[in-house]
Amino acid sequence: MPIDPALAIGADLGEVSFSWTASDVLLYHLALGAGSDPTNPAELRYAYERDLHVLPTFATVAANLRSVDAPAVRMPGIEIDLAKVVHGAQAVTVHRPIPVEGKAVGHTRVVDVLDKGKAAVVVSETSVAGSDGTPLWTAQSRIFARGEGGFGGRRGDSEKVERPDREPDATIDTPTLPQQALLYRLCGDRNPLHADPEFARGAGFDAPILHGLCTYGMVAKAVTDAVLDGDVTRAQSFSARFAGVVFPGETLRTRVWQDGKRLLLATNTVERDAPALADAVLITT
């Protein structure tokens, strides 16, 4: 089915009510590798409920934690084969610290559909408020659909982030586990691309790849710990473009440049020196 931007752009994808508990937060953090040093207080604040801190990136999974089905890319004017889809970019802005447990309502709409020639980019935005109506977070997601371009839409502006012409202020290495994707898929993304070798080969990859949102969350945690002294409340927003794949078991190397309240980030895999996250910005309070 070809993409119809006239139908897609502005489409209301409805509301969803959801809730989460401390156990959900703990699962998410463990799926990001938290608790690797189980006696370290800095790790236990993510992996033990007694003084639990919630990473802002929990917003990316909170509504889908109970999902056990592979996602489908179907919405007004859009129907795309899952094998053609990869996550293109993600942004989260928290309006207040995410509570350890809560109930919320999320409202999603399609804000744009971009024509990149050989691919299409679908941009959706979700606004989430607590049960009392207080805004909690806003998330924007971009999915990249190979072979779905050429429908006559606009290409969109460049969102390249210019970094300072100097050495980074910090460099952080973060190992991933061979089973990292199998852990992370328990947070609600059951796309077989991250677990099934045959499906991954059919999609053009040598092996199952790590979820982009897992890389996104791992980098957010690593930078929060290394640069913000582990204070999750100082992280106000985080945006990044998924620039390449990560295979479970590889090490992420993140370079950080401080620019006022902005932390400019670039993440590569150590083993292949291949880009993972680009044009990434973490804004602090």
UniProtKB/TrEMBL annotation:
Any one biological process term the GO annotation gives: fatty acid beta-oxidation
Stretches with biased composition (Basic and acidic residues): 154-169
Domain MaoC-like per the UniProt entry, residue ranges: 162-273
Any GO MF annotation of the entry: (3S)-3-hydroxyacyl-CoA dehydrogenase (NAD+) activity
Entries under Pfam families matching the protein: MaoC_dehydratas, MFE-2_hydrat-2_N
Annotated Peroxisomal multifunctional enzyme type 2-like N-terminal domain residues: 18-147
Annotated spans, Disordered: 148-173
Family note: Belongs to the enoyl-CoA hydratase/isomerase family.
Protein's name according to its UniProt entry: Acyl dehydratase
Organism: Amycolatopsis sacchari
Phylogenetic classification of the source organism: Bacteria, Bacillati, Actinomycetota, Actinomycetes, Pseudonocardiales
